[in-house]
Amino acid sequence: MSKIYQVYGQSAHEMTLQLLETAQAVRLVPSQGNVVLKPNLVIAGTPESGATTHPGVLSGCIEYFQSHGVQQISVMEGSWIGDNTMRAMQVAGYDQVCRKYNVPFFDLKKDKTRTVETAIGKMDICQSALDAGLLVDLPVLKGHGQTIMTCALKNLKGCLPDREKRHFHAMGLHRPIAALGAYLKPRLIVVDSICGDLDFEEGGNPVTMNRMYLGTDAVQLDAYGCQLMGIDLEAVPYIFLCEQFGGGSTAMDPSDLVELNHPEAGMETKFRKPAGIVGRITRNVQADSACSACFAALARALYVGNMQGTSDMHIGQGWRGKSFEGIGIGNCCSGGTSCVHGCPPTADAVLEALTKQA
Ligand code: SF4
Questions:
Q1: Residue nearest to atom 8 of ligand 1 (CA)
Q2: Cα–Cα distance for residue pair 108/36, rounded to 1 Å
Q3: CA-CA 20 to 30 A from 146: which of 268, 300, 315, 344?
Q4: From the CB of 316, is ligand 1 less than 6 Å away?
Q5: Can you give the residue ranges of every domain in the chain?
Q6: Ligand 1 centroid to 326 CA: how many Å?
């Protein structure tokens, strides 16, 4: 079983340095190997929104590895379908970090890919992720409308080209996420749990938890994340599946947890169980293989409009080419009586259409 190092506080930069120093993370860098940092930059949102990895995690990692003589460090990410990675990196403040430390940032949407054989068959993965000497996974611990939670394993989905991301949704997410995690098997993970959104992947309702933790087993860290959020492991099937595919172990002994400090008096560190808002408001929607961005646009529109999804709302790739009675969300559902076009449509456009229809 691997150790998990945990620290409380509010300075992502200092906390990251403390975690990496204590874990002596530089030992994981192969000789002559490069270090590739993979944050969560799913959308153009600030870390304070609860969606993206704090830039202090990046600066902490870069400063640590540079101070230990690592020359080749880069940052890579590909935002979700419909968002622009370079815009997202500016909104999150990564451009300043990369400039300050003279570290390149690669937009994985523009990267070359290679087809590899995973536990569930062939998969196209971005070359920069496959060629990393040390892939450092830097997720945010958050809730997710379709997979309940997202952390170390699901963050790796950003290492895919958009066409493979769509394919993941068509395959039902859990098996491909598990297979990807088992294939890439990042050897260093630093989790940003300073303020994640426990319901919406794209943020907007951040919950302050003032915590970060580091480990070397993505399966174990996701299992620990579930424990923190009060979620049964069975509710997130990709974690056990990844264990079955050889991606790591869910086992954790209390002695595996190494606490570097204690929360200051009055510091908010308690998790509240995700309210399950997204599941509740989309329960009756006819969803079939919907991409995250499309599904999030619908969920956000329903939430903001204080509406409940109904069975005449259709969303997802499974509706492509089919005719149906009711409203379609996204270009895949253009066979409906009406459709909110876009791939994905914006939450505002969905809200406008649903409000007109109501
Ligand atoms: S319309 Fe939505 S579900 Fe269809 S491919 Fe685009 S983002 Fe995915």
A1: 291
A2: 12
A3: 268
A4: yes
A5: 4-259, 277-357
A6: 17
Structure-derived torsion over alpha carbons of residues 62, 64, 69, 74, reported in degrees to the nearest 10: -20
- Strands 4-8 and 121-126, by their bridges, are unpaired
Q: Quote the ligand 1 centre to 232 CA distance (angstroms).
A: 29
pLDDT in tens, 279-337: 899 999 999 999 988 999 999 999 999 999 999 999 999 999 999 999 999 999 999 99
Structure confidence by residue, pLDDT tens digits, 53-99: 999 999 999 999 999 999 999 999 998 888 899 999 999 999 999 99
- Cα separation, 333 vs 317, in Å, equals 8
Sequential DSSP letters for 9-32: -S-HHHHHHHHHHHHTGGGGSPTT
Q: How far is the CA of 345 from the centre of ligand 1 (A)?
A: 8
Q: Is the pLDDT reported for residue 1 higher than 80?
A: no
How are beta strands 35-39 and 134-138 bridged, if at all? Answer: parallel
With CA atoms as reference, report the closest residue to 217 among 193, 255, 259, 181.
Answer: 181
* Beta carbon of 346 within 6 Å of any ligand 1 atom: no
331 lines ligand 1 (CB under 6 A): yes
The residues facing 55 across adjacent strands are: none
pTM of the model: 0.92
Pocket test for ligand 1, best of 317, 322, 329 (most atoms within 8 A of CB): 317
**How far, in Å, from the CA of 341 to the mean position of ligand 1?**
10
CB neighbours (10 Å) of residue 171? 16
- Residue owning tokens 């969303």: 315
Ligand 1 atom nearest to 316, measured from its CA: 3
Give the CATH architecture of domain 4-259: 3-Layer(aba) Sandwich (3.40)
- Please tell me the distance from the alpha carbon of residue 93 to that of residue 178, in angstroms, as a whole number: 30
Rounded to an integer, the average pLDDT of 176-196 is 97
* pLDDT, average across residues 231-240: 96
